[in-house]
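Chapter summary example: a protein plus iron/sulfur cluster.
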Amino acid sequence: MPVPTFSSRLLAWFDRHGRQDLPWQHDATPYRVWVSEIMLQQTQVATVIPYFERFMQRFPDLETLAGASIDEVLHLWSGLGYYSRARNLHKTAGIVHQQHHGIFPLNIADTVNLPGIGPSTAGAILALSANQRHPILDGNVKRVLARHDAVDGWPGSPAVEKLLWLLAERYTPNKRVAAYTQAIMDIGATVCTRTRPRCVSCPVMDDCAAYRSDATDKFPVKRPRQSTPLRTTTMLILVDEQGSVLLQQRPPAGIWGGLWGFPETDAHDDIASWCDQHMDCKVVATESWPTLTHVFSHFRLDIQPLILRVSRQDQAVMERPGTVWYNARQPLRLGLAAPVRSLLDKLEGQKENHVTHC
Ligand code: SF4
C-alpha cells in the first residue's frame, strides 16, 4: 500500500471535515470564486458570507458588475473594509469586459495581471473554479507549511517566501486540485490556527516538524524587530540667581503634548544668543550633564541636559504665556514629563548637597 502523501492525507481529511457548503462552492464559476477570494482577503469566512450573497444578488455576473457604477459597488462593500478591493473588482470587471469579451481569463498569466489579483489569489481562482494545478500561498497556507517543514526565517522575507512557494508547489497534487486547495486553506483556518493549533486533529501531524519538536509556537518565525530609530535633543535647564528653573508648556500635539518641560534646541544652535534673544537672560556658566535616554514605543530619545546658570535681565518680567520660572521649594501643579521631573529632582538634590557641604 503506498505511503499516504501530504496531499492525500489532506484530501482524506477534507472529505470528512472540510468546508464543502460555502456559497461560492455552489456553481463555482471563475466569476463567483474570484469575488469570494477578493472578499476573503483579510476577512473571515463568516463575515464574508452575507456580503457575498448580497453582492451576487445585485451583480450575478461579470457583465452586470462591469456595467454598474463604482458608487453602487462601494455601497454593497460598506462595512467590509479595505475598499481598494472593491475598486479593483470593479476595475477588473471593466478590463475583462473590454479585453476578454466578458469571459474571465482562465490562464495564470492573464489572471495575475488583473488589478488586485496576486499569484496566490490567481492560483486559488483557477484551482477552485477550473481545477487547474496551481499552488497557493495565502497567510494560512504559509503558516501550515512553515510549521510542517519547520521553515527557518520570517515568511515576509523574499528568500523564505521563495522557499514556501517551492513547498507549496511540491505538495500540490496533480488530481483533485480544487479539493486540495480548499483543504489546505481549511486546515490553516480551522486546525493549524495562529495560536493553539489543534495538532491532534491534523492529518499531517505525524510528519509535522514543528509538532514533533514541540515548537509550533516558534513557526512561522516572527518578523524581526526593527531597530528603534534614535532622535536626539538638548534640554536647556535655565537656572536663575534664585534657583528658579525656566519651564515652557509644550504644544498640545506631539510627544508630551501639553506637559511642561525645558526649552529644547538643536545642539548646534548658539545657545547664549538664544537665551539673550528669547528669554532676556545672560548665560554666566554652563554645565553639561550625562545623556539620558527615554524610550517611546516607536523611537528612542537621547536627551543631552545642559545646565545654564543665568542672570535675568529684567526681574520684573516674571512670566510670559506658556512660560514659568519654577521654584522647586514652592512647586506649582504642573504636568511634567518623566525626564523633566527626574532632571528637576537631580537639580534639587545638587542644591541640597551643596548646602550640606558648606
Ligand atoms: S501538526 Fe499542528 S503545527 Fe503541524 S501542521 Fe498540523 S496543526 Fe499545524
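Key point: Residues 144, 147-148, 191-192, 197, 199, 202, 204-205, 208, 210-211, 216 surround iron/sulfur cluster (CB under 6 Å).
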